[in-house]
Write a structure and sequence with these properties.
Helix content: 25-40%
Distance between the termini: 24 Å
Shape: globular
Radius of gyration: 26 Å
Number of helices: 28
Oligomer: single chain
Largest sheet: 7 strands, mixed
């Protein structure tokens, strides 16, 4: 699309901001930024600096305003957009706010222009036969409006390879729509000797192309030669899946031949999105594994377990490059015992079933929480998702609104956004504790966030199912992180001030008491977001957003600013945070020069483990609570508070619990059945194993470790290297979400 009046931030403006605004880096902030979001600049042979990243990101977003594609924008409106871009620049540069991790990585790049999907962190797809429609991927044997079993798996495969997370639904209503698997498929994977991957591919089950062709013919086979593209991988998998079904294999051809000769070798660079290729071996293994799942289902419908296995095998393949992180959430039925217990098969768990977090769909009438709680106590799953609440409620405080979001079928992998089929989450978060320090009016800052996310809905999307639902819903997700920090800083106490005795449907409960000052403030911020969206929607002549606010789990982005992640309590008041680097990383000498402890990683070769002493905001406040000592009841109550007064989407929360609190899980799930749209739980881990990512320490140890650190890593890096960096380096174990579920980029 061509821009008639492209907006560019001027150098003198950026120089002025750099002189007057200081970025609020957390203890791990600059290092995390440099290895996660700073893009390589080929002509300068270095990665971006923060001012360059923010310029790229803000310009990439502001120029999505659809009025810039035509001549309807007045000079006054253009000037207002320039002013808005400048305000956004100041907001993000100071680290009072950021877009989602993927948006930080992609916004303003050529890749954004080619592939707008990459601006969104995560997606949802319902696993049932669907038509590809007018999408960038349509297998040649299908008409655009032809329903195919492969379509949701193709959507999932495509989005995962573009770095997105995918939630998918295998609830009974979807499984009933699956056709019977009609026939076995004889699968052959060919490779030519000229391929650099020949030997490895043969070991993985591929066949020598020349030898096979001497005794076989491609006549009467479904043959596909994969181009060396993401789309080629997807279409090859679709070919094999659809060959099992009569409706998409009318000739009943039972031989599928896939030629992988052109797939680039392991370690080759991937242009555009970045990273290195995994080579064809994981792909070969996936083809045979998925074909086996389908062959074993001949004569019956696919089950929730079959479909989850297929999704997990795709996710496993995407992860194999060791660059992208595949994030999947499988949503099954609450009474589907086979689905709930599928991870108890240890062999399959280690082979591929680790690739998704699994949750179950419940409604407010559901009461059988004890078996779910027992399963959570043993393996941290399943989470619960209440689709009934999501379809009929925004914020709980606004009451029952039947059908307000009736297309909702599932959620993204971290659970903060309930989504319709094909829909993405669209996130931006503020750090109120920093924004206030830097003099921002919070209502105005949240208004900027609403407008930022609204523009993302005008991106260029690849799939018809997504374009249709995004245009209909214009869903946005304005979030905040450092919630615990800000509340304690501003109000002097936590939001839950106590509990009172109450009775719920004949059951005695402890009802939370909320500080009404905090209720009032969150309510005010919510209405600021809604008003900003309504005003901007009117100017753009589009639908107001169906929902507006959320609490994302954050993670890497929260580390930039050094605030607590999403609604979560800090892991500990004082801790050692360990981050892993490739051993050739030029940041390591700078870190060593500043006094950080560095040692070889005990788990991975060619990897170094760096220890960062971290102090939580308000660690010494007598009202401070951490994940290690806050009660499970207060965490449930805090999530319920945010769902009631702030988030009209959902609230991502991983409740941590101590062993003696396990008995409270089922009663608390029942108590909040009319409030909580999604939640998950994990036992609290105190960093018991070697080189744990987080290890609680006491104040004295923190002070000792902190006293050993001197100098600024960014300045030391500049002095040692002249800011010259290496390409394609990144932190080994960072993720965009607190739970580790979602991908970086």
């Amino acid at each position: 699309m061509s821009l008639l009046k492209k907006i560019t931030l001027k150098k003198n403006f950026i120089d002025h901001v750099k002189e007057t605004v200081k970025p609020h880096w957390g203890e791990l902030g600059w290092v995390t930024y440099k290895r996660t979001y700073a893009r390589w600049i080929p002509e300068l042979r270095r990665t971006e600096n923060w001012s360059e990243t923010v310029k790229r990101v803000v310009e990439g977003n502001i120029n999505l305003d659809p009025r810039l594609q035509n001549d309807s924008l007045t000079d006054e409106e253009h000037s207002e957009l320039v002013g808005e871009a400048q305000e956004l620049y100041k907001l993000v540069y100071g680290l009072a706010a950021t877009p989602s991790g993927r948006n930080l990585w992609i916004s303003g790049t050529d890749y954004q222009d080619r592939n707008g999907d990459a601006l969104n962190n995560c997606w949802f797809i319902a696993i049932r036969p669907q038509a590809y429609g007018d999408s960038h991927i349509v297998p040649s044997y299908l008409k655009k409006d032809q329903v195919a079993v492969s379509m949701p798996f193709s959507f999932m495969f495509d989005q995962l390879m573009k770095g997105g997370g995918v939630g998918f639904s295998v609830v009974p209503e979807n499984m009933k729509q699956m056709p019977v698997v009609d026939q076995n498929v004889n699968l052959t994977v060919l490779i030519d000797k000229k391929s650099a991957s020949y030997d490895d591919a043969i070991k993985a089950g591929a066949v020598d192309r020349e030898e096979w062709m001497k005794v076989n013919s491609l006549d009467n086979t479904r043959f596909y030669k994969l181009p060396d593209t993401r789309e080629g991988w997807v279409i090859a998998n679709a070919n094999m899946i659809d060959a099992h079904f009569a409706s998409t294999n009318e000739d009943k051809i039972d031989d599928v031949v896939l030629d992988i000769t052109d797939i680039r070798a392991k370690g080759a660079k991937i242009k555009g999105f970045g990273g290195t290729a995994s080579g064809p071996v994981p792909l070969i293994e996936m083809f045979y594994d998925i074909n086996q799942v389908l062959d074993e289902a001949v004569g019956r419908q696919l089950t929730s377990v079959d479909c989850t296995d297929m999704g997990n095998l795709i996710g496993k393949t995407v992860v194999a490059g060791n660059v992208r992180r595949s994030a999947e959430l499988a949503l099954g039925g609450a009474t589907d015992d086979d689905f709930i217990t599928m991870k108890q098969d240890q062999k399959k768990l280690y082979h591929h079933r680790w690739a998704s977090n699994n949750s179950v769909s419940v409604d407010s009438k559901f009461t059988k929480y004890q078996p779910i709680a027992d399963s959570i106590t043993h393996n941290g799953e399943p989470g619960i998702v209440n689709l009934e609440l999501s379809r009929n409620y925004g914020r709980i405080a606004d009451g029952y609104q039947p059908g307000i979001d009736d297309g909702v079928e599932g959620t993204n992998p971290c659970g903060e956004i309930s989504l319709s089929n094909g829909e993405p989450c669209n996130l931006f978060e503020l750090f109120p504790v920093i924004a206030e320090k830097q003099g921002w009016n919070l209502e105005e800052a949240f208004g900027l966030a609403a407008r930022y996310t609204k523009r993302v809905t005008f991106s260029n999307y690849d799939w018809e199912v997504s374009r249709n639902v995004i245009k209909k819903n214009r869903r946005i997700g304005v979030s905040m992180s450092g919630i615990q920090d800000w509340i304690l800083n501003t109000f002097g106490n936590r939001v839950v001030t106590g509990f009172e005795d109450a009775v719920d449907d004949g059951v005695e409960i402890k009802k939370p008491i909320y500080d009404q000052r905090i209720v009032k403030k969150f309510d005010s911020l919510y209405h600021a977001v809604v008003k900003a969206d309504a005003d901007y929607s009117k100017a753009l002549n589009c639908q107001p957003s169906i929902k507006h606010t959320t609490v994302k789990p954050s993670g890497t982005v929260a580390k930039l600013a050094g605030v607590s992640e999403g609604m979560h309590f800090h892991y500990a008041g004082y801790l050692i945070q360990r981050i892993r680097f490739q051993d050739s990383d030029p940041l390591l000498p700078a870190l060593k020069a500043c006094g950080y402890k560095i040692e070889p990683d005990v788990y991975t070769k060619h990897t170094m483990c760096v220890e960062f002493p971290v102090k939580a905001v308000n660690a010494d406040n007598p009202n401070f609570a951490s994940a290690g000592n806050v009660s499970i009841a207060e965490q449930f109550a805090t999530q319920a508070f945010l769902q009631t007064y702030w988030s009209d989407n959902a609230v991502s929360c991983t409740v941590t619990f101590q062993p003696d609190e396990a008995k409270e899980i089922a009663p608390l799930m029942y108590q909040y059945r009319h409030t909580t749209k999604s939640t998950s739980l994990l036992p609290y881990s105190g960093g018991e194993f070697k080189q744990a990512p987080k290890e609680p320490i006491d104040k004295k140890v923190y002070q000792e470790r902190e006293s050993e650190i001197n100098g600024d890593v960014a300045e030391e890096f500049a002095e040692l290297t002249g800011n010259h960096d290496k390409k394609d380096l990144e932190l080994v174990d960072q993720s965009d979400c607190e739970s580790g579920a979602c991908p970086i980029k």
